[in-house]
Design brief:
Layout: E1 4-6, H1 11-15, E2 20-26, H2 31-46, E3 51-56, H3 61-66, E4 74-79, E5 82-88, H4 93-103, H5 106-123, H6 128-132
Parallel strand pairs: 1-3, 2-3
Antiparallel strand pairs: 2-4, 4-5
Length: 146
């Protein structure tokens, strides 16, 4: 699957989808972004069950500002609509493959489901214990060997 270009208008709908959505925040003037682009594109062809998306930070300042993108490239990953990974800086093909495998794991899927259930219980007026029973599973570069 080819990468999908996201805009301020399409970002929220895309990341809310079930499954894994990997987003590359980039800019045309960014050298590391241009070097990472073919790696990201190749991974999108290899991992067809994952949505690979790109956000041009210059053209889509609203979402870039809202997400506090301060360095590029920045990679963010969402699993079933929940942010589970964020890292600034490019990675190599092997690291990106390992990241996709970790994001697709059943264990992470279960953690995301628990976090969503806790959030739903909290929103529905559930107890604080129910709401805090699961926390949002956010991973960073130290916890996923990318």
């Amino acid at each position: 699957m080819a990468t999908v270009e996201l805009t301020d208008e399409t970002f929220a709908d895309t990341i809310a989808k079930d499954g894994v959505v990997l987003v590359d925040f980039w800019a045309e003037w960014c050298g590391p972004c241009r070097m990472f682009a073919p790696v990201f594109e190749a991974a999108s062809g290899k991992h067809t069950d994952v949505v690979f998306a790109k956000v041009d930070t210059e053209a889509n300042r609203m979402i870039s500002d809202a997400l506090e993108i301060q360095a590029i490239p920045t990679i963010m990953a969402f699993r079933d609509g929940v942010l589970v990974y964020r890292n600034s800086g490019a990675t190599n093909a092997s690291g990106l493959d390992k990241l996709v495998e970790a994001l697709s794991s059943d264990e992470l899927g279960a953690q995301v489901a628990e976090a969503k259930a806790a959030e739903a219980a909290k929103a529905a007026g559930g107890s604080a214990e129910e709401a805090s029973a699961a926390t949002e599973p956010t991973q960073d570069a130290d916890s996923v060997d990318a």
